[in-house]
């Protein structure tokens, strides 16, 4: 009997100790579980907040896309009303339908707030004048040394080109195509010489002197031309 009591006491003590260990472990697990649940709840809260932000940004993006489409439709309507604008503007990205406007028409060169077109085809002076007019421009009027140097530099090494200067209406009086009289010329050598008595229109020659490259030639001869027009008015460059 005594042995059984001793055995029971020993096992009871062991059970109590094991029970205490289990309780301690349970308490730890419960604390860990509470922490995990709290972190889960916090994560869900933050995720919900991020989702709200994403949805708000998506709504704003959709609104902006709608506004862009409306603006592009208005731009298209403007181009239909003023077709000459299409010379300056084009689709930068066909997929996004984004219009981009530049200071000069496509294929023209910008210099000092003016646009210049250097033709490849050749025409007589009158037809060259008409061709420039059809492009919304005119044969170039050179009214500064800077412009003269630009024309010379751009023409250097190329073919002769008509400019907007003539004395056809009155021999000896050189007039620009806008009706103003020539004040400063950049004639080559002994030019103008009116050789043959019919040289009434002026070209810029591709010679080596930037300020002496004008020559008077027969207006009926065919040469390339230089057209000039203003930059697009609402560009901020000028």
Automatic annotation (TrEMBL):
GO-annotated molecular function: carbohydrate binding
Keywords: Coiled coil, Lectin
Every C-type lectin domain range: 111-228
Pfam family, one: Lectin_C
UniProt feature coiled coil, ranges: 26-74
Origin: domain of life: Eukaryota
PANTHER family to which the protein is assigned, alphabetical: MANNOSE, PHOSPHOLIPASE, LECTIN RECEPTOR RELATED
Name of this protein: CLC4E protein
Organism classification: Eukaryota, Metazoa, Chordata, Craniata, Vertebrata
């Amino acid at each position: 009997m005594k042995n059984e009591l001793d055995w029971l006491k020993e096992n009871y003590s062991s059970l109590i100790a094991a029970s205490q260990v289990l309780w301690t472990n349970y308490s730890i697990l419960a604390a860990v579980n509470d922490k995990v649940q709290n972190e889960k709840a916090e994560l869900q809260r933050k995720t919900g907040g991020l989702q709200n932000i994403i949805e708000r940004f998506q709504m704003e993006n959709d609104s902006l896309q709608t506004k862009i489409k409306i603006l592009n439709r208005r731009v298209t309507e403007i181009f239909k009303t003023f077709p000459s604008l299409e010379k300056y503007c084009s689709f930068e990205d066909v997929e996004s339908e984004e219009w981009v406007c530049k200071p000069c028409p496509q294929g023209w060169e910008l210099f000092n707030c003016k646009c210049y077109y250097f033709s490849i085809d050749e025409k007589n002076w009158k037809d060259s004048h008409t061709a420039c007019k059809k492009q919304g421009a005119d044969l170039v009027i050179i009214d500064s040394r800077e412009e003269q140097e630009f024309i010379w530099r751009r023409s250097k090494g190329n073919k002769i080109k008509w400019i907007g200067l003539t004395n056809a209406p009155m021999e000896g009086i050189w007039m620009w195509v806008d009706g103003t009289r020539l004040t400063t010329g950049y004639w080559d050598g002994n030019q103008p010489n009116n050789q043959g008595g019919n040289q009434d229109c002026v070209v810029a020659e591709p010679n080596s002197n930037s300020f002496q490259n004008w020559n008077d030639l027969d207006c009926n001869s065919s040469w390339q031309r230089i057209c000039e027009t203003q930059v697009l008015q609402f560009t901020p460059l000028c």
